[in-house]
Amino acid sequence: MLRVDGKNIGFAREGIRILSDVNFSVKSGQILWIKGDNGTGKTTLLRIIAGVLKTFSGSISFYSQGDARNNEPEAIWKEEAKQQDKTLTTETIKKEKNLCGHHLTIEDRSVRQAGYEHCLHKTANNQNLDDAYNKLETASVVGSTLCNKHKHEEKKETKKLMINTSIGEDFTQKIQPHSEITYIGEKLACDEEHTVLENLYFWAKLRNCTHLLQATLEFFDLAKISNIEIRKLSSGWKKKVSLSKLLLFNSKIWILDEPFIHLDKRSIKLFTELFDLRLARNGIIFLVHHDELDIDDDKITRLELG
């Protein structure tokens, strides 16, 4: 079980106070739904939680109760900020601890590269959502073997690797994630001069999971646009490509800034179902979203800013 606490979080830019004394606590299986008017610091708070913004006051603490004695939460990572000479600065504390069996690393580079996360358009081979998600959440031994076999050819034969990677195998070996946090900003995080396939391949290489590329293409119905440059796509397709990163990672914590923008109703519905599945697997979701959510109210913790 995980828990994330924010205490007395504050942030100022050019002398203007954006956030002041913000407090929250969210645990596994819950969404922290951050709401507020424009300019109240919703995106700023997400960036602080993700570790992208370092100059803030207060603290963000991550806890795991899996191995803690007497059911007391064990601090696995904490980021604190303190004020010196009237300037907000950051003091980061990193500990060699495990988060649900995986090493936790919070770095600007890894968070930014994780970039966007996920959206859902179509389940592969008409499978139900849960089966499809399970297949995408785990990696097959066959797929891993195939990936290793073609490792020396990857730079020259990316598309060939994609074609030869199958979604139809039995998945048994868990993906080892690079980071337990995946941050999805509101802005597009794609190289618009490259194709859909080239963008997906680049992201997959960052997390050493190229064996899941074909599955991701089919899951989001992206195969038919895989050779099209991002700049030529509609806003909706661009969003789906950006959000497809989630299925290449296995993060426990999702940080999402307006993920439903430009998505059609069908995609939003499936995406919401995927939220439920992530929560059922003891994940935590931090969400900025303006409209209503079709999710059980007991899974939602609301935080109003402003």
UniProtKB/TrEMBL annotation:
The alphabetized UniProt keywords are: ATP-binding, Cytochrome c-type biogenesis, Membrane, Nucleotide-binding, Translocase, Transport
Q: Which InterPro entries match?
A: ABC_transporter-like_ATP-bd (IPR003439), ABC_transporter-like_CS (IPR017871), ABC_transptr_haem_export_CcmA (IPR005895), P-loop_NTPase (IPR027417)
> Where does this protein come from, organism-wise?
Neorickettsia findlayensis
Would you tell me the protein name for this molecule? ATP-binding cassette domain-containing protein
Q: Name one GO molecular function term.
A: ATP binding
What GO terms in the biological process aspect are recorded for it?
Answer: cytochrome complex assembly
Q: Where is the ABC transporter domain?
A: 4-305
